[in-house]
Protein 1
Amino acid sequence: MRLFLAFLAVAGASCASAPPVTGPVAAKPKNVILIIGDGMGPSHFVAARLFRGADYRIGKMPVTGVVSTHALNAIAPDSASTATAYASGAAVNYGVISMDRSGRPLETALEVAEKTGRATGLVTTTNFWDATPAAFAAHAANRGETDTIIDQMLKSGAEVIVGGGKAKFDDSRGVAAGYSVVHSWDDLSTARGDRILGVFETQKNEIDFPEAPLPLLAAWAMERLARDPDGFFLLLENEGTDGSSHNNATDDFIASARSVDITAGVALDFAARHPGTLVIVTGDHETGGLQILPEKSLNVELRWGGKGHTAADLPIFAQGPGAERFLSFMTNDEVGRRLKALLSSD
Ligand SMILES: [Zn+2]
């Protein structure tokens, strides 16, 4: 009996979701900026709040919700399955990149945005072909199929792709796909051409590139993509919050959590100048079982409960047209369905 109840609890945790918010959509966004702090669970956002203090921008976003994370075959998921949920609106197995169980591609939010004529961009602090950006622009049975994933990303139509991986990437592949390939902030900020591929040196714990931290790349990418009169979809991922959590590297984690909040601030400032911009900030799964201690003290002590991913629910924050769609408890795949509905032209 106890076993049965346990099963019910697990099934409930992974399947239950609030029904989609129904009724007419007041307004659809022109621009959508999705910011993912990889590995950021509830305590990671608390840490960002405590270390940013009065400057904490995420906490000023008007809409908040809660996201449950899971892969079809895992209570504690990985970034491929969770990014697929956000990108395609479908639940998949651990390690899968936007592909269904029959091997068919699952349409992604980036592909929907491309269909509507929007410009698109993928910016991350880790290798540009890593699971989170990959799930928006590629389809593969396994996140380790790097060559296939890179080929598809370069054919996705994305105007802007920026990330790490310089030591492992052959520039000629980008050039052959029509991209201007650059390796420094100077060259990126002055790059001409319709498609820009920025490939930097991946840092330890996948933290920000020293010469081009995510807030700087975010501001550059937004201005560049905003040249498209049809609007844009932009994914901004900080992987440092995940890499540092895996290694229980507290200093790198604090720097990365701050970077996520500053990046959110850059997006919110852009939105203030460009009405019609929806900004969403969330994590993809919790990493490291982070605890914030101690009780009865004003000191902040971070303690790690492990080195892997956990099944913790995540906060999600939104502002702009369509933000009200994220005001509930949702499974991660429901987030993806709502995101695609907001980007679609129907
Ligand atoms: Zn991870």
Protein 2
Amino acid sequence: MPPDAADVIIQNAQLRTMDPQNPVAEALAIRGNRIVAVGSKTEIMAHEGPDTHVIDGKGGTLMPGFFESHLHILPGGVSLERLNLADISGAEAFEIAVRDFANRYPEAELLIAFGANYTLFGDDTRITRRHLDAAIPDRPFYMIACDFHTGWANTKALKAAGLMQGRDLGPASEVVMDAEGTATGELREAAAMDCIMAIKTAGTREMLGMSGLEPDSVTQAQREEDIAFLTAGMEYCARHGITKLINMDGNRYQLELLAEMEQRGTLSCRIEVPYRIPNNADGDPIGKAVQMTRDFATEKVSCGRVKMFMDGVFDNWTALKLEDYPDRPGYRGAPIVPPALFERLCTQADAAGLQISVHAVGNGAVRHVIDGYAAARAANGPRDSRHRIEHIDNIHPDDIPRMKEIGAVASMQPVHVPGKAGLPLEPTVTLMGRENWPWAFNWRAIHDAGVPICFATDWPISPLDPLHAINCALTRQPWSDDLPDPRLTLDECFEAYTTQGAYAAFDEDRLGSLTPGKLADMVLLEGELSSLHCDGNLQVRPVLTICDGTITYEAS
Ligand SMILES: [Zn+2]
């Protein structure tokens, strides 16, 4: 028996190590939470001892665990218990789904659905409270758009929230009103949407991290309720082969819960949670982020990042563009954080050694974010900062080399492409503007300019499955024949979910590839990878996930 016998050996697998020094192998050995050897079956079986757990890979593909580089774990965990409207279209299907859901939750103070398409009731129909009232007039009902930037409430919920006559919520949010001065039911962006969530007296803490707020006071029972949501969300991630999560909303409260879970040994993924700087940046947000970074710094739970929003989305005209919206001459959207404040925050965060992630969908928002990062670099001097831009649905071609120049990372979501993953083409592509289509979700141009790309899904905004996201990326069709092919190859997509995800999180020395010495995070896939290139049902799925040397998911 070798003195350094392995705890776990996986053999009879096709290793796709994502390590350019040693790209393919047959077997791998783990001791404790580390990979100790990668090689041929003969080489690896030499590490077998009497207590080694030997797993037969049955010819499957063994890869590094997936990085989900942009998600919302607490809202995700909660979403597993809400009505998902992603596959629902038309009034009839909607009414059946909502009534069934309401019957299942007779006690709920506010019935909440998510994943609603803007075209739920038809391509040219803007949703109002009357559509919702037709399905459920007698209980407060609220539904959230597939991109989480718009909500719609029925009349009962609007009245309960005191919104029927509208409310002024500042420039970034809107209670949409009709010609008679009554709320239509449409609520744009967080401040307006939060008014409806406030109807609930319990269990609304999952959205606080989206605005960078902390709960006022939390009972032990409420903490346990949230820990249960986090646990369910993480188990769902492990089932999809994910081992590291970069959360993209964040407050101290979530980190406290996650640290508690780590102590109990119930974390099934590693997770990084940023501090989401509130839009008005009141107080000392950078100081708070630095303190969170100091207080939470284990191998599984960390901070180290600030998150901000520069704009919203095209479908409700809150994406910030460089040109006018085609249907609204003179209007381009507005930056959520004014440029001078944004530059100051970036400069302070950068000087403190924090990584910055900013939501930017329109080409105008992307430019503002690059300007802020460039200002920070000019003030503090160049460093390996890897500041990230989240989404980049659209970018001006001049800004791609600028991203490269300042060392920025593109965090992109193949499942956000209009016409993919249940999202309709319209009105998004029209509002984006025909002239911008060549630069929409153009992974190829960004990648080939030397800008690192990590992929993610923004779950629960889009479906979590990384293989589904890769399938969306590989099968994307151009919106017209004259557009360039923006797709990456399968290998490049895998890099975006492994090595590049690790790079984007400063994790490349310890995660992202199956390399001896790195932490033992991996996924075993069963089935044909070639099915990732085809439309139709995916023929490949995770059967085993290991995080930190421990099995976190095993298919039955
Ligand atoms: Zn997000």
